[in-house]
Write a structure and sequence with these properties.
By secondary structure, the protein is α/β, with parallel strands linked by helices. The protein has two domains: about 130 residues, Aspartate Aminotransferase, domain 1 (Alpha-Beta Complex), CATH 3.90.1150.10; about 230 residues, 3-Layer(aba) Sandwich (Aspartate Aminotransferase, domain 2). It contains 14 helices and 15 strands.
Length: about 375
Amino acid sequence: MKSCFDFNKPVERRGTDSVKWDLADDDVIPMWVADMDFESPREVQEAIMDRVKHGVYGYTIELDSLFEAVTKWVSRRHNWTIEREWIVFTPGVMPGILGILQAITRPGDKVILQSPVYTPFFRAVRNSGCHVLNNQLKYENNRYTMNLPDLEEKAKDPRTRALILCNPHNPVGRVWTREELSTVGKICLENDVVMISDEIHSDLIYKEYKHIPLASICDEFAENSITCIAPSKTFNLAGLNTAFLVIPDSRVRREFQNMSLPKRATIFGGIAAEAAYTYGDNWLDALLDYLDDNRRLLAGYLKARTPQIKVVEPEGTYLVWLDCRQLGMDNDGLEKFMLEKAGIWVNQGYSFGSGGDGFIRMNIGCPRPILEKALGRLNAAVNSL
């Protein structure tokens, strides 16, 4: 059955103050920041426009209907029942993570990260006065797994206070299994390490896989965790700066709420989130089918025509981790090659910490003609070496 949503529709983004497009030269295809080139659902657009007509945009509160939309979405899509009082809104996942770190840690404490991982995690740990303990992922047979013995050893450090888990993982695309999450949860519980689970990409899961919210596994994990979620990646609403934290532990929730940080949904962000979570199921299902076709196109094209670049199969997200080490370039050379020779702007692997050298991250959340054009450029550039 053909989708009624036209994700092939071109949307002109240059000249719209777009970080993704207006920072790039006109002859470069931007495929870097986690920002899709698709229009948000029609119901979201209409809800925002209806509110715009009022003409007054003062301070706002989160309505009961927004909390209801959030709890029903999480229950419907992820089979996880959360209570309204657990939810705290923030302008974004990263401000929320920074606030949580400031609430539960003291200067000199240690926080575990699992590199290569989302770059702002490193800044958040440093800005909270803590030190990074890196539990680097293992890359074997073109797939990433956790180094659980090393994680357990680092969790035993008496100054280790928290783990920031990325699920689904950005940039390597793993969707952690229940077994993996259960092992992590037990290690953290046994060593009094709080789990901060970034699940911003949790709605973007391919059909072969299933997202398991860490806190949904058992009550003990829920009480020892903070889950970070937002509609921004799912529905392309990043500019509306609205996310929410799920904090079942009342003491941690109270400490976070006492922090001098913004803890509200923005006026249009709240409206957009409510509309998306209420009416967005069909749009999201169609989007996932489209992204899956993009994922398969990318993998098939590179395998057949540009085998020097290997796809690390993404289990979730629209961000694809590509192994370019066979090109034999150092980090500077690879960055220059992608931008100047291939004419595509991607994220460089080294920026995600140790284990990222020789890799790139490509955003395939774009109309297929853009992806096809980028692949043609990449193939021509590699073949010209």
